[in-house]
Amino acid sequence: MSKKKLNSLEDLGGFVFSTNDNFEFEKQDDQETLAPNNQNLEAHFSNKGRGGKTVTVITGFIGSETDLKALGKLLKTKCGVGGSVKDQEIIIQGNYRDKIMEILKKEGYNIKRVGG
C-alpha cells in the first residue's frame, strides 16, 4: 500500500492541532430535529450479524443525537426491553416491530414497515 502524501492542513480532514493543554474540542449538535409529522421513519427486522439474535431497527430519523436518544429511550421503556442508539439508528432487542410502529404513530411519526 502506498501512503498518501499530506501537502496541506486540508489533507488532514479539516482538523486543527493545538499545543494548548487546556484546549477542549466542542462537539456541535447543530442539526435541527424535524417535527414528528415531518419524519419518515422505517421499521426493519434484522438478525444478521448479531449471532442469530433478533432486533428491530428504526432508521430515517432526522435530528439531533440527543433527540434520537430520547426517542430510543421512549421505545425501550414502552417495550420493556433493551437496545441502543448508534449510527443514526435505534436498535431494539427482539421482534417488536408492530408494537413500535403503533407507539410511533401515536407520537405523530410517519412510519413504514420495511421487509418481511
TrEMBL record:
Residues 48-108 form the SUI1 domain. Signal peptide: none annotated. InterPro entries: DENR/SUI1_TIF, SUI1, SUI1_arc_bac, SUI1_dom_sf. Keywords: Initiation factor, Protein biosynthesis, Translation regulation. It comes from the Bacteria. One of its GO terms (molecular function) is translation initiation factor activity. PROSITE patterns: SUI1. Belongs to the SUI1 family. This is Translation initiation factor.
